[in-house]
Amino acid sequence: TLFYRIQAFGMSLWFMPSGVSSEADLVQKSADTLILGVAGNPLHKEILSSILAHTNPRRVLLSHYDNFFQPLARGLSLLPIVDLDPIMETGRSLAPDVSWGVLDFGQAIPLSPDSN
Fold first, then answer.
1. Partner residues linked to 66 by β-bridges
2. How do 11-16 and 4-8 pair as beta strands?
3. Distance (Å, rounded) from C-alpha 114 to C-alpha 116?
4. Cα–Cα distances in Å, from 99 out to 33, 48, 51, 61?
5. Cβ atoms of residues 26 and 16 within 8 Å
6. The pLDDT value given to residue 20
7. How far apart are CA 110 and CA 98, in angstroms?
8. What letter would DSSP give residue 74?
9. HSE on the CB side for 62, CA within 13 Å?
10. 113, 55, 108, 64: which is closest to 87 by C-alpha?
11. What is the pLDDT of residue 116?
């Protein structure tokens, strides 16, 4: 899986569409916003802690949680193996100063310039 880091106009965004399985998968690059796919490998506390340490985000948006076995016309629903609440709880305990949210289909996310 490819990770994407987009930087433009004083803003940066890391897009990690699938789960990270080890620290070797990560690059030490910070970004203001991290979009983190959660349907891949489980985000154990150690992996999530490592992701946060490597990316140092101000905002994390969970993505790639949808049930792609049902038509999008029915709306978004969670993939049966995904539970967002424990991921958010763990994330908030590891990084209480980080803003946590869920990226919804078609949702516009305004980006502000990095503070780093």
1. 78
2. antiparallel
3. 5
4. 9, 15, 15, 8
5. no
6. 63
7. 16
8. G
9. 23
10. 64
11. 44
Tell me the pTM.
Answer: 0.82
So what's the pLDDT on residue 68? 80
Ramachandran angles phi, psi of 76, nearest 5°: -80, 140
The dihedral built from the CA positions of residue 77, 58, 40 and 108, taken in this order, carries a sign that is positive
pLDDT of residue 33: 92
With tokens 């101000």, the residue in question is 58
Burial 91-104 (b: 16+ CB within 10 A, else e): beeebeeeebeebe
Hey, how many other C-beta atoms are within 10 angstroms of the C-beta on 24? 6
Can you list the residues of the chain whose pLDDT is less than 50? 115-116
Structure tokens at 69: 């076995």
Cα separation values, 90 from 1, 58, 93, Å = 24, 16, 5
Amino acid in position 39: A
